[in-house]
Amino acid sequence: MAAKAPSPLTVVLLAAGMGTRMRSRRIKLLHDVAGRPMVRWVAETAAAVRPDRMIAVVGHQADDVRAALDGVCPEFVVQEHQLGTGHAVRVALDAARPGKRGTLVILNGDLPTLRMTTLRALLARHRRSQAVLTFLTADLDDPTGYGRVTRDDRGAVRRIVEHRDADAAVRRVREINVGIYCAEVGVLQPAVRALRADNSQGEYYLTDAVHALIDRGVKVEGLRHADALEILGVNTRAELAQATRTLYLRKAAALMEAGVTIVDPDSARIDPRARIGRDTIVHPGVQIEGPCVVGADCLIYPGCRIVNCTIGDGAVIRDHSVLTDSVIGARAEIGPFAHLRPGNELAERVKIGNFVELKKSRLHAGVKANHLSYLGDADVGEGSNVGAGTITCNYDGTAKHRTVLGRGVFVGSDTQLVAPVRVGDGAYIGAGTTVTDDVPGGALAVSRTRQTNIEGWVARRRAKLAAQSAGRTKISKG
Questions:
Q1: Superfamily of domain 9-231 in the CATH hierarchy
Q2: pLDDT per residue over 304-317, tens digit each?
Q3: pTM of the model
Q4: Handedness of CA 195, 199, 202, 207 (dihedral sign)
Q5: In CATH, which of 3.90.226.10, 2.160.10.10, 3.40.630.30, 3.40.50.1370 is domain 360-448?
Q6: Which is catalytic among the residues 225, 320, 371, 401?
Q7: In the Cβ-directed half-sphere of 364, how many Cα atoms lie within 13 Å?
């Protein structure tokens, strides 16, 4: 006999509310947590359990929420008036028409620290127990403001009582409802459609649907979760900071387990999407943002910010360097105080030193630019050396132009390369030169004037100044 196919799984993501406690013009779900909008974290966690459908209920700033969920949530339903969680679920079910067979997971969009394993455990418990509805709970030392879960002598759920409706005895209960539900559609949908808004808030509460199911005598489970911080929603700026800290510490812990040294996990800010190789050392105050890839045996010193970069094995990124949208080859050395703007490709063993800025440039193996230089829209050949104070003049006021240096070029200090210009293999450029024409390979380019020494000039100048000073003194006395 063929095994029974699992029932279709639909996720409903509640993302319509404003979140006024954030004191922001943006809805709270669009605030960043560890580099991504809060609501996207929740959607990606839900997507990891492979639902057949995911539907986001949107309202305030709906277009921005859609943009934040691009590529992860394919279906959206607009809740024109925010009339409570029960109303939001009703709107989703009426629009989606999932049928009578299937399982529904209901998630608030303000749960960025929710783990995929927690969601899977909820689904497994729901299916194993054959409950009609299962919801997550947690115990809090201070449950003020949360709905309390009351149980009978056998531990079965009796009610979810909102804080404002609870008497003194119920308010002493520490177990709270965190608002994560798993339910059978065919049973939940009629209960949601029967909800009434006969309360002081004029809202349709999903918890009233839970009570209706309990009163019918069907099986409702409350699953306690040990880590309350993981499943509590973000409502304030302080809770936003706590959620961000949690995700960064999780990432640091996972990297250390995999063989990366994080000198100070409390101060490192490493994007959860980043990948870092074994025996790399990340010093305090480092920020790694976006899906960066950092190789093995790298050194990243304090104060660096690295955004959307790929860094090869054995590279060294020295203190307070900023790298954005660039590729850095193996055993390259960057900084301190270097700035790599977007679009750079650095090959192996390139050295970029103090206060050097790069933009949209390609530096081949072994290139050195150690001091106070700017290379923009440049292609620098293998083994070339760029002296201190060198700049590419790549913008003519209208368009950008490229500078191309061949292999083994030596550029003296304080050189200006006025693009478009090409310098051939092995050419030398004298210090202080302004290069406006192509330089052939093996040639020396010099554009400065010949030095002139004027003997006795300093003594004559001093005598003149002394005479002028004496004249002023006579006039003042007269």
A1: Spore Coat Polysaccharide Biosynthesis Protein SpsA; Chain A (3.90.550.10)
A2: 999 999 999 999 99
A3: 0.89
A4: negative
A5: 2.160.10.10
A6: 371
A7: 13
